[in-house]
Amino acid sequence: MTTQLSKDAAAPSDDGYRPSARRLAREAYRRSRTRRSVAIAAGSTLVTAVALALLIVGSPGWQRTRETFFSVEYARRALPSILDGLWLNLRLMAVCGAVILVLGMVLAVARTLRGPVFFPLRLLVTAYVDFFRGLPLIICLLMIVTGVPALRLAGVTTDPVLLGGTALVLTYSAYVAEVFRAGIETVHPSQRAAARSLGLTSAQTMRHVVLPQAVRRVVPPLLNDLVSLQKDTGLVSIGGAVDAVAAAKIQTSETFNYTAYVVAGLVFVALTIPMTRFTDWVTARANLRQSQGGAV
């Protein structure tokens, strides 16, 4: 008897449920609709790609355009120097990105400080954010890269890489500060009240209660800003820094062939696409957790 009970316990449970014929038919219909949609999407994509290819290849100037912009020989020749310059872009993105996040957080917290005593600080931060958000990045770069060396200040660097990175930090920290401020303001006031009722100070409430929630909520827009920063690091070539864009420009000036620019562009695209897909995944995950009632 004991052996029989042990066998029954070890055997998989069968509650006797069997899907109905209607449910099986519905699931089969959904699978067929999915296959049909995939086939239609693939077919339309193929037709569109073929039509575009025929239109471009059949144009009168295609032969000359292919030699000028899509030469395999010039691409092979320019790729090593472009990859060497890309290392500068990656370092700029890493260092400037870290500084931008810290400075943006400080600016956001300073702008959300309460009390009349902090009014001058809030006014200065607001003026800073409004100015650098309205100033085009390329003008900021030109002003920093050309204006700072013209001052001839003792001990101030004239390195175009550092000056270009400074311009990137000044501009992007204004955008990131607004992103952080938006996240801070989305935290319900009851969270602050509950924290203060537990004996936490204003600083402790901001650090342990408000900021953790705010940062989680603004991760997707922050990643979007980092994607934009990754592309805009190529603008430091304006000041003479030899990055991927400057390397492509040097190759073009030597060969009078623009394939190097195409290669540099494709390299940036190859770096941007994975980060963009990661941003989409983080956004979808946050939306899913929010729709299910979890913490964002």
Summarize the structure.
The protein has 296 residues and is mostly helical. It contains twelve helices and no strands. It has helices spanning 2-10, 21-57, 62-69, 72-111, 119-134, 137-151, 160-186, 189-197, 202-217, 219-232, 244-255, 259-291.
Based on CA atoms alone, the radius of gyration comes out at 28 Å
Low-confidence stretches: none
Mean pLDDT: 86
Termini separation (Å)? 54 Å
- What class, by secondary structure content? mainly alpha
- Summarize the biggest pleated sheet: none
| Count of helical stretches | 12
Give the strand content.
under 5%
Write up what this structure looks like.
The chain is an all-alpha fold and 296 residues long. The chain has helices spanning 2-10, 21-57, 62-69, 72-111, 119-134, 137-151, 160-186, 189-197, 202-217, 219-232, 244-255, 259-291. α4 (72-111) crosses α7, α4 (72-111) crosses α12 (259-291) and α5 crosses α7 (160-186).
Helix and strand arrangement:
Elements: H1 2-10, H2 21-57, H3 62-69, H4 72-111, H5 119-134, H6 137-151, H7 160-186, H8 189-197, H9 202-217, H10 219-232, H11 244-255, H12 259-291
Helix pairs in contact: 4-5, 4-7, 4-11, 4-12, 5-7, 6-7, 7-9, 7-10, 8-9, 10-12, 11-12
